[in-house]
């Protein structure tokens, strides 16, 4: 059976939501989801059926839909980060992966998926404003960008790397010499720059904004060594990127 554009939209939206949740966490009801996404219940059910087939979601009789773990990701085990060199390699890999994910999201130009990116960004801003860590909201923001890329392998890779991402965010925050309030402002501005570039449909600006954000993590941990590893490429106006919270 052919997948309708609305069903594909609902699939991508729910997938982005699932990627920001924990295994076995309950999804909102079908009524709530259909209202939030602006689609009919039959359209939503087609999307949920696709997610169940792929293993992202599983249903419990009388209880609703819950986050699953796709079989394809069970074998995609990258292993823990064992050392600081591991952390550096991981952050460099994220630069390559997520810069292109952001560029693809800008190129794809689906306004409803872009709205989900903005919504996730605002949720993180709210968490930080209320003194919460915002780590899960941070991960969900990046997952929404991957979902908006139009390439499911970006989403699958981001999902498989969620635990490493969680560890890297915690470590960077612990080692940062910046006051928490200053760091929160930097992260907010970096995320807004990424969001704005994607919404503007500018792949080059989206790629650069994501690189600026992720290189902040490298600068936080490795300082001038990270800049040297980049080949001394100057940033806008010759300034180094503001340290990002990732």
Automatic annotation (TrEMBL):
Name of the protein described by the UniProt record: HTH gntR-type domain-containing protein
Domain of life: Bacteria
Name of one Pfam family that matches: FCD
The UniProt record lists the keyword Transcription: yes
Keywords: DNA-binding, Transcription, Transcription regulation
Ranges for domain HTH gntR-type: 3-70
PANTHER family: TRANSCRIPTIONAL REGULATOR, GNTR FAMILY, UXU OPERON TRANSCRIPTIONAL REGULATOR
A molecular-function term among this protein's GO annotations: DNA binding
